[in-house]
Give the backbone structure.
Amino acid sequence: MSRIFNQMGVKNNQNKTEQTKISTLLEDLASLESYARDLFSFLPIPVCFISSIGIVLEANPAFGNFSNYEIEEIVGEPTDKFFNPEAIEEISRETFEKSFIKGKEIDLVTKQGKEIPTIVSTVLRKSEEGEIIGYFIALFDLTEIKKTERGIRNAQTALLNMLEDINEEREKTEEEKNKTLAMITNLTDGLLVFDKENKLLLVNPQAQNFLNLEIKKVINKSTSELNEILVFKPLIELFGREIKKIFRQELSLGKKFVLEITTAPFMVDEEKIGTLVIIHDVSREKLVEKMKTEFVSLAAHQLRTPLSAIKWTLKMLLDGDLGKITSEQKEFIDKTYISNERMINLINDLLDVTRIEEGRYLYKPTPTDIEAIVQFVINSYKDEIEKRKIKLDFKKSEKKLPHVRVDVEKIKLAIQNLIDNAIRYNPAGGKVIINLKQSDDGIEFSVKDSGIGIPKEQQARIFTKFFRALNATRIDTEGSGLGLYITKNIVEAHGGEIWFKSKENEGSTFYFNLPITPPREKFEEFIKKF
Amino acid sequence: MTKEEIISKAIAQNLIKIPGQVRGVAFKTDAEYILKEKIEEDLKKLETELEKLGYPIKYKEIQTMSFYPIGLRLISLLLIKKIFNFDDKKINDIGFRATKKSLIIKLFIQYFLSLRRVFFDEAPKIWQKHYTIGKLIPTELNEERKYGILRLENFNLHPLYCCYLTGYFSGIGHMIIKSPKITVEEIKCVFRGDDCHEFLIKWE
């Protein structure tokens, strides 16, 4: 009995031990479950387990958050709900073949239908018997990377476009450069291009020809270095080593070879980046002009002798030296005499012009009282002024003006021409104001009229030889168009300046300024031009 | 039954006497459903009602793998229905969702290799892993015609449990059959005079 009881006691003890073991195992299992659940829940990467037939059997909360589905809406659902069927099929097939996949791209479709680019890794799960149960799939969100990638791709495209544009621009520039070079090469004028340091960059074939240059010896040379080369010396002397701005200045390289030189700086944003020297061959024009001047001179001389003979004959007739004439005859002869006088004046003007142009215009400067000359000219117009009732006012300087070294006859002619115009192109009863004063650098003379004025569009040509303004020709058909040309040349020959202000129908004011002592070399330089 | 009592203590005492046990996971999935559909206070309300009946259980403290009286589970389910005014469809849904959270189901996932194997070999095991009473017998599977029949014997618990099990079998069906539509219907029931329960699983 006792043995039976003992045996029962043992059995009871065994049962208790078994129960304790089971209880411990259950607790361990619960802990393990809690651990596995926490681990799976904690994983920040979306993970799910997909069965071999393509059903999601498990998903962690990260997958739920990523897809915006509740876990209950994920588990038990086919993978097609979350991925493109073909793409997930391909991933499944590859996983079954290779046991795992690393870094394959697939889009996850969220509950809202949004496609999120992801990169996935998978690992196959097999049963203890080696049968495929399914696979785990972990997703990595590529949205930001794709965005960056898109940004890079866009930047790359933009860069390529920019490069394309630059190439296009470069080609255009190259084309433009070629065009410019072709133009420069084929230009009939000679061209020299200097950089901003005044080094010779380019010589076109015409310049090479005009100056008989050897390109190799002159290119990249500074103006200082070029000044040592014989053929360049006169050119550098003309525009200086700093290449000052000059406009159509003549350069004689021999008796019959005359070049006209113009320099033009080229600027970018008000910064000088180089200078262009344009060389124009005016030899032929000069020759033609010379021949023309010689012809005019010859013709004028030839005409002056018979015109003088006519003048004295007419004078004798008018004075009654050749017998009494009727008043009707006198009237005709008077008109003929005046016309003849005009003709003689014209011839004299023409001769003056030819003298200027041939450099034979005599220059005998002597210290002179300009005021006396002006007064003399005004007096010579006294009858005309009275006849036409012109109100002439001569405003003299309050203080005594210094004597000026001038060629009296020439300056008298210049003043006469200006006063003559002021009276001639003024209506009867008009005003003429003559002003003489000391200026900063000499004596300034001006004559203001209330006459017809010069039309604005014709003002630029007013000092040109034979030019007459249109409104002037309507009033007086007899003018030669040489007066202002001669006046300008006389003033400039004295180192002076001449200018004017004028408004059509309101009048004109002509000014000139003479230095007290004209620089002789200036006169000579001036004369050289003709 | 007092006015305050949802289920009378006498009924509860009868139910608790039903032989058999069920794994804690069933209580856990019920609690998760309530927390999902309701709020924390509602779960406490349920616990209070259980306490009033003399069963002061805390759902969060229940161990998933431990066994608890099946009568207690039935009391819990009846209280859930009455407190939250759940209809049969909701009870069915509790069963359906339980499969998606159940640890035991997860443990059996590795055997979900073929429908036939799950149906004939694993389903009875899954039942046994959950319940100490009743016997689940797969009687028919026609994959060509897309249906299967599961018979449940010796499980005369309560008609409400039939709703729960219909949802539960449907959830498992979704895990093993890739189909856009899966339905489960209880075609035989002991509470309708049959000798057992039979569940017809159909899919498209």
